[in-house]
Amino acid sequence: ILNDLLCPSLVLLGEDRTCMPESFLNYAERIKNFEVKNDDVWIASYPKTGTTWAQEMVWMIANNVDLKTGEKSLNDRFPFLEESSLSDEKKMNLEPSEYRPDTYEVAKNMPSPRFIKTHLPFSLLPDQLKDGSKSPKIIYVSRNPKDACVSYYHHCGIFGGCRADLESFAKLYMAGKGVTYGCIWKHIFGYWERKNFLNILFIKYEEMKANLPVVIKRVAKFLEKKLTEEQIEVLTKHLSFESMKNNRAVNFESSLEKLRKSNLMVKDGAFIRSGVVGKYKEELSPETIKRFDEWIKKNVAGTSFEQEYD
Ligand code: A3P
């Protein structure tokens, strides 16, 4: 099991038998019954696909590029619905005053319009999203799985739980086993296959890297917001890798500081790490890249889903 040290056991849940931390079991029922609102804005994604980047973009677009209010932590502006169920802060030798609030409650009690992040696969979403009785706007972010896998490996390393080398991690990643949120393809297709039923916009990490202003305009249109050219320019700068890396509201440094303080961080590192397309080429062996390419080909064959796989 290659998981966060703070939640070392995984269970298989939902129709897709998705790997989730055992601690999620206490949360599953609450999430199933979570009350969705039509004016919510949700971001759904598989981990390490550029979620944080997209969250900051979406929040800024919806809030007229309000950089001042955006100084508040992204976790508060755009809570991660199931975050509290993924690890147990009580195991971190922190003072109770340092525990984060229950993220489910934070999301639930936010004034509308609420902004909610989730990594949950479609099968584990709240019933009101699954049955279509509520239809908030959903933005789904995806990324080349080879880069997402390498990014996930480094993420697990920082959070202290990865007991494997990258090559073994990649094997399990492709098998959808031993990693929280299971198989990336089941995740993507769980949403993609419902694109005519959900009010959903698909965006890709690689598109954001290639031409961020174009993606900003597409998302603004989806959110029914009008931004001036000047606002788009300011936002593009705000969302640059360097700017986000140095922005404490979005770079999760305060969470990482807690880990450092409790000696749970095995390998020092940053959440906003390298931000490069195709970085996997420097880290994965040629054999693993070949295996990845075959796996990708097999999974997208016969579907209409397109992603840059270079
Ligand atoms: P790398 O580890 O490849 O650098 P998530 O938010 O889903 O966990 O995704 C994290 C990934 O998004 C990390 O990828 C991180 O560096 C990258 N990222 C975050 N902000 C970014 C930005 N402004 N520009 C480019 N990449 C960014």
TrEMBL record:
Q: Which GO terms describe its molecular function?
A: sulfotransferase activity
Keyword entries, A-Z: Transferase
Cite the Sulfotransferase domain residue spans from the record. Answer: 39-303
InterPro entries registered for this protein in UniProt: P-loop_NTPase, Sulfotransferase_dom
Q: Which Pfam families match?
A: Sulfotransfer_1
- Which family does the UniProt entry place this protein in? Belongs to the sulfotransferase 1 family.
Query: Mind telling me which PANTHER family this protein's record contains?
Result: SULFOTRANSFERASE SULT
Q: What is this protein called?
A: Sulfotransferase domain-containing protein
Q: What is the lineage of its organism?
A: Eukaryota, Metazoa, Ecdysozoa, Arthropoda, Hexapoda
